[in-house]
Design brief:
The protein is of the alpha+beta class and about 70 residues long. Helices cover about 15% and strands about 25% of the residues. The chain has one domain. It has one helix and three strands. This is DUF397 domain-containing protein.
Length: about 70
């Protein structure tokens, strides 16, 4: 599926500190979520279904993606 994402509202985390080395997120029709590299806004974007995004967000909240302690 090729979505036209040029008109969606992309945003960065408030914790990005103004850096240009971040990911940007957009909420898209149908509950989908787009993710792109802020350094390359015209480049490719990933689009996740609502359940996929919810599972990812839950994993982040639960520490599933934390680096192992050395």
């Amino acid at each position: 599926m090729n979505d036209d994402l040029s008109q969606v509202n992309w945003f960065k985390s408030s914790r990005s500190g103004g850096s240009k080395e971040c990911v940007e997120v957009a909420f898209i029709d149908g509950g989908r979520v787009g993710v792109r590299d802020s350094k390359n806004p015209s480049g490719p974007a990933l689009v996740f279904a609502p359940g996929e995004w919810d599972a990812f967000a839950a994993g982040v909240t639960e520490g599933e993606f934390n680096r192992p302690q050395a």
